[in-house]
Amino acid sequence: MSDRPTIQIISPALADANDGNWQTARRWSDFLARDYQVHVSREWDGTGADAMIALHARRSATSIAAFAATGGPVAVVLTGTDLYRDIRTDASAQRSLELASRLVVLQERGIDELPARLHPRTEVIYQSARSLAPGRPRQRSFDLLLVGHLRDEKDPLTALRALVHLPADRQPFGGLRLIHIGGDKDPSTAAVFRQAAGGDDRVQMLGALPHASTRQWIRRARLLLLPSKMEGGANVLIEAVTAGVPVLASRIAGSVGMLGADYDGYFALGDDAGLAALIRRCRLEPAFLDHLRVQCTRRAPLFEPRRERAAVRRLAHNLVLRRAAETAPHAANPPEQHR
Question: How far is CA 121 from CA 50, 73, 181, 319, in A?
Fold first, then answer.
């Protein structure tokens, strides 16, 4: 029987969902597997654990409340819908904030959404991706990649509307091609997107692909488009930056917190004409495309796996220390947390 402490990771999405939450849960489980027994599940089943790491304040609220009621320490990892919607209006998400021993945001602007009294127990952990050498782009087309399950929060329709502003010509670098990778998470958004995409032969829909295949598509793209309405810290953005692929992103806090305030590849949320203008400039001005690539490269060290691994291990270590201090007989003062 192992004497390693047990960490319970709660993720609303598991492998079958193939989304950002699952990728985070899988990666963090791998980071912790050497020193801890790690269990990943959608909900806590009451099995004993030394600490819990829960993704999503609202969707994991039941597990957070149940584990906290046992006196166990909980770290709550806040997603985009948490930070930019749920904690403003949802009582269960708000309660998760209060019950958390530690709060984790996934980019530097995330903490701005939390009350000042919660800042002392909040930390930033940037997610990561293994660096890939940039692929050779397709020469017959200028490929734009849109990655993410079709749902309103990702605002995929802005990318489609941007194409309307761009002529269907063959020069330079071949004609434009918009490639979408992802499933139909929101049926209404997916139906509208599919109907609009069917009227433009420049749009190619690949459906949901395995993670490794998606990364290969990313590394061969000219640009990644990220028109989202809200993001906690987009995995796909990291996967583009760490493969040398520039990103055109809506100017929302979750993307600014990843790429920096001075990044030149932003457009206003929902501004299809602004996105089209950036695509046109990248296509006609190779120097500007290279400039965006350099700006992304400067942010890439934030997304190194060793940096994320160290932060996640530190988080787990401090949670387990807290548990040990609270359960030790006659404990006076808990040991100082590692920073």
Answer: 19, 12, 37, 12
Would you call 175 helix, strand, or coil by DSSP? strand
For the domain covering 141-302, report its CATH number. 3.40.50.2000
Residues 266-320 have pLDDT tens digits of: 999 999 999 999 999 999 999 999 999 999 999 999 999 999 999 999 999 999 9
- Determine which helix (DSSP H) or strand (DSSP E) holds 40, and give its type and residue range: strand 37-41
Cα-based distances in Å from 144 to 48, 120, 177, 256, 278: 47, 41, 6, 21, 12
At 201-253, the pLDDT tens digits run: 999 999 999 999 999 999 999 999 999 999 999 999 999 999 999 999 999 99
Residues of the chain with CATH 3.40.50.2000: 6-128+304-327, 141-302
> What CA–CA distance (Å, rounded) separates 299 from 79?
21
Please, what CATH class does the domain formed by 6-128+304-327 belong to?
alpha beta
CA atoms within 13 A on the CB side of 118: 24
20 — pLDDT class (breaks 50, 70, 90): confident
Q: What is the CA radius of gyration of the chain?
A: 21
Other Cβ atoms within 10 Å of 70 Cβ, number: 11
Report angle CA 259, 216, 214 to the nearest 5 degrees: 75
Rounded distance between C-alpha atoms, residue 165 and residue 297, angstroms: 29
The DSSP string of 88-153 is HH-HHHHHHHHH-SEEEESSTTGGGGS-GGGGGGEEE--------PPPPPPSSEEEEEEES-S-GG
Please give the model's pTM, rounded to 2 decimal places. Answer: 0.89
282 with 223: CB under 8 angstroms? yes
Rounded Cα gap, residues 250 and 263, in angstroms: 11
